[in-house]
Amino acid sequence: MPDIFEVMARRRSVRRYSGEEVDERDLNLILEAACSAPSAGNLQAYEIVVVRDRRRRMELARASLNQMFMAQAPVHLVFLAYPSRSAAIYGRRGARLYSLQDATIAATFAMLAAHALGYGTCWVGAFHDEEVLRIVGAPDDRIPVAIITVGRPEGSILTTSRLKMESFVFEEEHGRPFRHRAMMKGLIRPGC
Ligand SMILES: Cc1cc2nc3c(=O)[nH]c(=O)nc-3n(C[C@H](O)[C@H](O)[C@H](O)COP(=O)(O)O)c2cc1C
Q: How far apart, in whole angstroms, are the C-alpha atoms of residue 8 and residue 37?
């Protein structure tokens, strides 16, 4: 198993998938990783819908502004924020911020776990919320935060660059660049 720095550095969005299924054990590991994520007050104000049905994946791809590459991925993980669960303790801040953060962190953990297991993923955020809720049969007070597509990658994966760290990581005060020494050279992409 690669270490976490290698997983983070080598992860790229994957938009082409082989037809291979996601192993059941791996899927369980990915979901356990998601559930191990921190959450505000440990309330886990999110839900995950695992979608494997081909027709439903097609529908999700259409609801995501026709991003049809999604349908190739054998598994879609739909992360839903559950605002009222967080609001019960944290009020408006729980509903408007923490539940979205809880869902986002869980999706991130799932994504990294999937890459550690040799799968490719893509974080999809462009979709019609109401359509996604309808397709997965979720109550309309939930907020779809991300659909993570999971599958074995096919073909070459596009590399991406990042902004130079000095332009957005600061030391003590906003605007004073953090003096960064590249520690992940050879692993991480140019820019950072
Ligand atoms: C909030 C969010 C929304 C995104 N939405 C989409 C999307 O709808 N479709 C897509 O193909 N990629 C989407 N992405 C993936 C980004 O395009 C991708 O992460 C970015 O270009 C950097 O590329 P990399 O992931 O290969 O490093 C999204 C990523 C994030 C974090």
A: 16
Containing structural domain, residue 34: 14-157
Residue 177 CA to ligand 1 center (angstroms) comes to 26
Closest residue to atom 10 of ligand 1, CA basis? 124
181 assigned to some structural domain:
no
Is 170 within the bounds of a domain? no
| Among protein residues, the one whose CA lies closest to atom 27 of ligand 1 | 12
Asked if residue 160 has its Cβ within 6 Å of ligand 1, the reply is yes
Q: Give tens-digit pLDDT for 21-54.
A: 999 999 999 999 999 999 999 999 999 999 999 9
Q: Can you give the CATH number for the domain in which 70 is found?
A: 3.40.109.10
How many domains does one find in the chain? 1
This prediction has a pTM of: 0.96
Ligand 1, pocket-test mutation among 123, 128, 129, 149, most atoms within 8 A of CB: 123
